[in-house]
Amino acid sequence: MLMDDGLHFIAGLPRSGSTLLAAILRQNPRFHASMTGPVGAMYMALEGAMSRRNESAVFISDARRQAVLKGLFSSYYRAEATGGLVFDTNRIWCAKMPALSHLFPDARVICCVRDVGWIMDSIERLVRRNAFELSGMFGFNAAGTVFMRVNQLAAGDGLVGYALDALREAFFGEHADRLILVEYQALTRTPESTMRRLYSLLKQPYFQHDFDNVKYQANSFDLSLGMPGLHTVRRKVEWIERETILPPDLFARFVNDTFWRTARTSLRPVAIIQPETRGA
């Protein structure tokens, strides 16, 4: 069936390189990759429609649920999947590992990760760069402070908090061996060796990428959120050293959240592509 061997997932934490990774992967003519798309939301809508809250769900067997959910990917990616490899991006996939293991037994979930304090810093920089735009990410609130914004992001249902909890669930879960964690510093400091390792883990022949000419933007989407530049990728892949713009106590709040660097208690080994050189 279509998509049996032609699908992997990109998930992990926001502002951690998922759009950059997709932009690099799409240089390979065999690969289809993009920013977060609609398939994740459609998947959850189908789950809800087939749940017990629908009185007719009594007629839907687990086998039929699986067929419908798998058919979503086949239908959506029909053109791209023919003779190629699809990477679907959505942070919810870390929370769907048991289902994905049944639907796509050979699929890997690539999780882009980064120090959480720097994620918060990156989002706050975008807010300040767009000083005359109110962001839909924060409900177009004109009275927000950096403390309010970070607290909202860090909440369990917030952009960062949800993604971090989902990643932790997958990392310590029974399907952790399907994960490939890619640290942001590894991708930006040493893109060549990082991509070679990723290709090896995916069991794909390596494609010679041009790390000085990477292109991706989604101006209309970003503008609709009041966050121009949210998904714009710089042409050259490089690490840029900087100081945080967050208040020190706020930045330090997340210093212990990089559990993947210190935790060794996951049930199964997790492949982690880490930076060769440590920095800020």
Structure in a nutshell:
By secondary structure, this protein is an alpha/beta fold. It has a single domain (7-273), classed as 3-Layer(aba) Sandwich (Rossmann fold), CATH 3.40.50.300. The chain has 13 helices and 6 strands.
Could you please describe the fold and organization of this structure?
The protein is of the alpha/beta class. The chain has helices at residues 18-25, 39-49, 62-76, 78-81, 97-103, 116-129, 146-154, 159-171, 184-189, 191-202, 219-224, 248-252, 259-262; strands spanning 7-12, 31-33, 85-89, 109-113, 179-183, 271-273. It has a six-stranded parallel beta sheet with strand order 2-3-1-4-5-6, sandwiched between helices. The longest helix is centred in the first third of the chain and has 15 residues, at 62-76. The mean pLDDT is 89.
Question: What topology emerges from the helices and strands here?
Answer:
Elements: E1 7-12, H1 18-25, E2 31-33, H2 39-49, H3 62-76, H4 78-81, E3 85-89, H5 97-103, E4 109-113, H6 116-129, H7 146-154, H8 159-171, E5 179-183, H9 184-189, H10 191-202, H11 219-224, H12 248-252, H13 259-262, E6 271-273
Parallel strand pairs: 1-3, 1-4, 2-3, 4-5, 5-6
Order of strands across the widest beta sheet? Answer: 2-3-1-4-5-6
The CATH architecture: 3-Layer(aba) Sandwich
Number of helices: 13
Please mark out the parts with pLDDT under 50 across 5 or more consecutive residues, or reply none. none
Please state the overall shape, judged from the principal axes of the Cα atoms.
Answer: globular
Helix content: 40-55%
